[in-house]
Design brief:
With about 130 residues, the chain is mainly alpha-helical. It is built from four helices and no strands.
Length: about 130
Amino acid sequence: MLAAGIKTPVPLEELEIHLREEIERQMKLGLSEQKAFEISVQQIGQPKKLNSEFKKNERTLMKKIMTILLGIFGVFFGVGFILPALAKYRDLGIWTGEQLAYCSLGAAIVIAGISTVIFGFKKRKA
C-alpha cells in the first residue's frame, strides 16, 4: 500500500481493519488462515486502484467544503446589501426604489447562499 501511495494513517488503518474483518469472516467459513488471507487481499483490491478511490473521496470532501464555504460567503454578501438599505430606511422613514432594489438583491443572494449551503451538506450517491 505504501508503494502505491497510500501513506496517511487513516486509510491504512481503515484498510487493515477491513482486511482483518474479511479474514475473520473467511475463517468462519472454514478456510485456513493462509487461504482466508489470500482471498481477503484479492477482495480488497489492488493498491493503485484503492489509492485512486481514496483520492476521489478526498476530492469529493474538498468540493463539499468549498461549496459550503461559498454558500456562507453568499449569505454574508447578501446581508451586506440588506443592512445598508435597512439603515437608510431607519434614517429616512420611507422606502425608496433604490432601497427596495438593494433589499431584493440582498434577499436573493442570501437565499442562493442558504441553498448552496444546504446543497453542500446533502449526501450524494457514490
